[in-house]
Amino acid sequence: MDFLWKPIVFTAAALGVLLLSLFTIRSHKKKDRKYHPVAGTKLNQILNFNRLHHFMTELTAKHKTYRLLAPFRSEIYTAEPANVEYILKTNFENYGKGWYNYNILRGLLGDGIFTVDGDKWRQQRKISSYEFSTRMLRDFSSMVFLKNATKLANIVSEAAKSNQIMDIQDLFMKSTLDSIFKVAFGVELDSMLGSNEEGTSFSNAFDNASAMTLWRYVDIFWQIKKFLNIGSEAALKKNVKVVNDFVYKLIHSKIEQMDRLQDNSSVKKEDILSRFLEVGGTDPTYLRDIILNFIIAGKDTTAAALSWFIYMLCKNPGIQDKVAQEIKEALKVKEVKRIEEYSAHVNEEALEKLQYLHAAITETLRLYPSVPVDAKICLSDDTLPDGFSVRKGDMVAYQPYAMGRMKFLWGDDAEEFKPERWLNEDGMFQQESPFKFTAFQAGPRICLGKEFAYRQMKIFSAVLLGCFVFELGDSNKTVNYRTMINLHIDGGLHVRASYRDQR
């Protein structure tokens, strides 16, 4: 991945981007159409890569919608809700993943729901929508989340006893991977305790492959490197093989298990793979693509959101106490003696009462959305609601990270962490337009796992915050994101926990 930053290669690439961008400017002037203001070129993104979302927020504060010029096309970035609604709903059919995104993502995600358009997307969406709406999956996933939240709380408890600083983001990444793996495959990965060596290898390879896939968006030479099997593309190929070997082994094992149990109708088929085997056939590649897309959706996004949530609570201890008090009252627990006994009080009825917790998690997602930018490809020439034109082949992206910081959307206190903005006069959570609060997309592609994710985050929060007080390991250390597809905290989030009842 360092290939991009070698001085000679970087300079050549930058000059190439700049020259091609200038050509794009000239070609746009030939058209008698009105285009969004130019805020820079692809080169500016590369130069600001480590602070990319800060850079794009600064541009958004100047222009609600703007263009960055890139080879052969414009990249259009918008924070205007009317434009977002048009892209994601009103003219949905004209804004898809397109060949550009598919070509980049298919190495890891294949023909999964996050890479395809048209009939392939519709078929997977229909089946997935049904599965996510079943009570069986809700109950099974809740049981899995609670089990892993309890396991995580015991790890935190050991660190609290010795006053040890821990990387809570790393623990969230492992626990959410364990959860989604159990829900997706019905398999105990146990990456939290590291007892499954194959699972640990898969986890590391999956993370590496995800990061290398992102580099394809900035590495203009990736297809050459893939053809030659060198550099980051050789490493990506190696990591994807580890991922595939592990997943195909699980799929074949599950198919054999299902064949043995096919005459036993009383056996519950709770995990997603078993459910898809019942309705979608047994093509291993098809199943691999579906399941890996679920994993990337359910692992990093939830873990990143929980990490930023703990960070915001550490920065706002008064809000942390208020969340914890609501949890204690909803669970009707005055004192935590054993974590397992305490966790047993976390149920659907208690979770429904956690309105302030729900608001605090949502406020975190407003400021630190798990997917900070989401891009589509314009499939035919079009005009957005703001009156500006978009050309066929242009990339059009809405910006959850930048939108969460815009005063024209959220008021003068847009950059403040205020869960109360999500509560009505009765203290009940109230939704905002999904075209203003875009953390879960909107329209036909709205996140199927939205409620699934909230339930997982609330279960983990209820267990951890009811038992522990969290504070930053080093309050003077700057916490920032790592520029990836998902908004990870760079270098992890190092915190210290203490028992809440012993403060």
Q: Which regions are unreliable across 5 or more consecutive residues at pLDDT < 50? A: 1-12
Q: Quick one: CATH class? A: Mainly Alpha
**Which structural class do the helices and strands define?**
alpha+beta
CATH topology: Cytochrome p450
Give the % helix. 55-70%
Strand content: 5-15%
Strand line-up in the sheet with most strands = 1-2-3-9-6-4
The end-to-end span amounts to 46 Å
Number of strands: 13
The CATH homology group name:
Cytochrome P450
Radius of gyration: 23 Å
Give the averaged pLDDT, no decimals. Answer: 87
Gross CATH architecture: Orthogonal Bundle
Task: Report the biggest beta sheet as strand number plus sense, adding barrel if it closes.
Answer: 6 strands, mixed
In one word, what is the shape? Answer: globular
Number of domains: 1
Tally of separate helices: 21
Pfam families: p450
GO molecular function: heme binding; iron ion binding; monooxygenase activity; oxidoreductase activity, acting on paired donors, with incorporation or reduction of molecular oxygen
InterPro entries: Cyt_P450, Cyt_P450_E_grp-I, Cyt_P450_sf
Binding site for heme: 447
Task: Give a verbal description of the structure.
- The structure is a single chain.
- The chain is α+β, with helices and mostly antiparallel strands and 503 residues long.
- The chain has a single domain, classed as Cytochrome P450 (Cytochrome p450).
- It is 56% helix and 10% strand.
- It is built from 21 helices and 13 strands.
- A 6-stranded mixed sheet has the order 1-2-3-9-6-4, with helices on both faces. A 3-stranded antiparallel sheet has the order 5-13-10.
- Strand 2 (65-70) and strand 3 (73-78) form a beta hairpin.
- Helix 8 runs antiparallel to helix 13 (284-298), helix 8 runs antiparallel to helix 14 and helix 14 (300-315) crosses helix 18 (355-367).
- The longest helix is centred in the middle third of the chain and has 31 residues, at 231-261.
- The radius of gyration is 23 Å and the shape is globular.
- The two termini are 46 Å apart.
- Residues 1-12 have low confidence and may be disordered.
- Its cofactor is heme.
- InterPro entries: Cyt_P450 (IPR001128), Cyt_P450_E_grp-I (IPR002401), Cyt_P450_sf (IPR036396).
- Heme binds at residue 447.
- Keywords: Heme, Iron, Membrane, Metal-binding, Monooxygenase, Oxidoreductase, Transmembrane, Transmembrane helix.
- One of its GO terms (molecular function) is oxidoreductase activity, acting on paired donors, with incorporation or reduction of molecular oxygen.
